Amino acid sequence: MEATKAAGGSGEPRKENKMGVMPIPKLLLTMSLPMIISMIVQALYNVVDSIFVSQINENALTAVSLAFPIQNLMIAVASGTGVGVNALLSRSLGEKNYEQADKAANNSILLALIGFAAFCLFGLFGSRIFFEAQTKDPQILEYGVQYMTVICGLSIGIFLQITMERLLQATGLTFYTMITQGLGAILNIIFDPILIFGYFGFPKMGVTGAALATVFGQIVATLLAIFFNVARNHEIHIHPTRMRFDAPTIKGIYAVGVPSILMMSIGSVMTFGMNKILLVFSSTAAAVFGVYFKLQSFFFMPVFGLNNGMVPIIAFNYGARKKDRITHTIRLSCIFAFIMMMLGLIVFQLIPGKLLLLFNASEDMISIGSNALRIISWSYLFAGFCIVLSSVFQALGNGVYSLIVSVARQLFVLLPSAWILAELFGLHAVWWSFPIAEVASILLSILLFGRIYRKKIQTL
Questions:
Q1: Which distant-in-sequence residues (6+ apart) come within 8 Å of 155 by Cβ?
Q2: How many Cα atoms within 13 Å fall on the side-chain side of residue 132?
Q3: Residue 425: exposed, middle, or buried by beta-carbon count in 10 A (0-12, 13-18, 19+)?
């Protein structure tokens, strides 16, 4: 019986997983570097996407910026579920419970399809309502409806891509996720100008073309990720006959996944609220906020890539009860995140105007944006530590701690601060709400980490 279980039903003994034996510096590099590279490519295509859209006009750029909360919400649902799958799958492999690992993998695909169906319906029937709640400008409204209808209606790509990539990450095959994400991003970059401006015989489709280029890249990346999981991932077994809803497995996924979904979804609420505050001043201010989110991804995405490699390492070694490997992973991750965020601080302080010119910025946009980038980037002094500690909470099965920090930062500090600063001092002061919120976030994160360290790590 035990021999069969250890072999995953194949009758052959499994090799010791590298996450339990490889030296931590090498392991973290091996697990994270492909993800960091792919995340940087992702950041590149996010920026390039907006650069091409900005060539249409500023209203097109504003429309895409206003659509960001819904795009972020889709990613939140898919990635949050993926975090739960990742934690359960990695922990199951650490405990050598291969049957549970297979259940987690197959149920994750069913959950991805449900997420796609929900957002497809929203895209088809709710896009106009969403944009009418933000703007009365007819051109921004039409651009936004066109863009969101495609992004949501064909969101099967983003849901299945994220799910399949999380399965590869959880089993240590992060090199393949670099390939899938890289291919999707490159295809998006190539087809953006072709479909937006109508090159090589394609019709000129404007913002609809930008949306189609995005979903095309996602769908191709999904197909490749499915192939890698079926043909190269020997830790799990994916098959339609195994895709049956299992209540205990889904409960285990969402014990970590729901707090993660809510945590990332709060970002959508924050962005929507911030856009409402900024639109009182001008649509240009909202466009600046959208551009900032594109630019900051160059520094945040590598840290997220690091976290994607870090989470399965911590979850696996927690399941295997290896305290030293957990603490070593956390220390190295914090050091890397701090270095990356300091680079972002330096860039935004020195050349904000040049960055904004990439987006065909007007003088008004450069004036507003330069001030915004310089002020917001001071929050980077603490942001890297907050991101790493949030992922540590998730890896150890305490996703609710990440949720508490995110709610406190974005809903209880950032948005109220932004509104008060806007009312008292005007647009130039709104951006200080970001550093204020980050200080509150780091203090709360340290407090909760001390608690989880004493209860879960120290006792191993």
A1: 74, 116, 119, 120, 123, 215
A2: 5
A3: exposed
Structure tokens at 136: 């009365």
pLDDT value of position 19: 65
Whole-number pLDDT of residue 70: 93
What is the distance of C-alpha 275 from the center of its chain?
A: 20
pLDDT at 227 over 50: yes
Provide CB contacts within 8 A for 48, sequence distance 6+: 188, 189, 192
User: Are the C-beta atoms of 98 and 106 separated by less than 8 Å?
Assistant: no
CA dihedral over 330, 332, 336, 339, signed as positive or negative = positive
Alpha-carbon distance of 293 to 35, in angstroms, equals: 20
Q: DSSP assignment, residue 454?
A: I
* Per-residue pLDDT band at 6 (split at 50, 70, 90): very low
Torsional class of 178: left (φ above 0), alpha (ψ -120 to 50), beta (otherwise): alpha
Between 430 and 93, the more confident residue is 430
Q: What is the mean pLDDT of residues 429-448?
A: 96
DSSP 138-167: HHHHHHHHHHHHHHHHTTHHHHHHHHHHHH
pLDDT at 220: 96
Element (H, E) at 127: helix 98-132
Separation CA 332–CA 343 (nearest Å): 17
Q: Tokens for 252, please give them.
A: 């285990």
Whose CA is closest to 457, among 329, 327, 328, 335?
Answer: 327
Per 3-state DSSP, what percentage of the chain is helix, strand, and coil (rounded to 5)? 85, 0, 15
Instruction: Report pLDDT digits (tens) over 44-70.
Output: 877 888 899 999 999 999 999 899 899
Q: How many CA atoms lie within 13 A of 374 on its CB side?
A: 14
Q: Is 90 exposed, middle or buried (CB count within 10 Å of its CB: 0-12, 13-18, 19+)?
A: buried
Half-sphere exposure of 250 (CA within 13 A, CB side): 11
CB proximity list for 160: less than 8 A, separation 6 or greater: 109, 112, 113, 116, 222, 225, 226
